[in-house]
Sequence to fold (162 residues):
Amino acid sequence: METSELEIIKKIHEIFRTRNLRLSLAESCTAGLISHKITSLPGASDFFDSSIICYSAESKIKLLGVKKSILKKHGTISEEAARAMAEGIRMKTKTDFALSVTGNLGPNPIEDKKTGLLFMAVSFENGTESKGLIFDGAREEIKLAASMAALEFLHEVVSLWG
Fold:
C-alpha cells in the first residue's frame, strides 16, 4: 500500500472512530477493493458496518432498492445511480455515512459510456454529495485509482459534514 493511500485510510479510521460514526459501502466497479482497503488497518470493526458488492443492475435494484426508472433513464453508470446506491445502503444499514461507487473499468464502452468514467456518492443525514471522474489507464489501474478517489471523497465529505 502506498504512503498516500495509507494516510487517507488512517484519517478515515481516526475521524470515524473519534466521532463515533458508522460507515457502510455499496461497491460496483471496485468490487470490494474499498472495503478491503478500509479493513486493512486494525480497528475498522469499531466503525465499519457492512459492504455490498452490487455489480449487476439487478443487484442494485434488489439489494439496495435502486429504482428501475433511475437505471433505465440514466444507466447504471451515472451520478443518479451512485446517489441512489449510497442512499439505499445507508437506509438499509442505518449507518451515519455510506459511500457508493459505480463506473466502467473497460476495456469497452458500457451504456455508451467510455472506459474510465466513474461516479461516487456519499450519503449522510443532511443529504448526499456526489461527483464524477474520468480515469485513463488499464482496467486494474482505473480500479485502483477509483478506490483511492472514493476514499479521498469520503474523507472530504465526512470532514465537512461529520
Q: What stands out?
A: The CA atoms of residues 15 and 159 lie 8 Å apart. The mean pLDDT is 96.
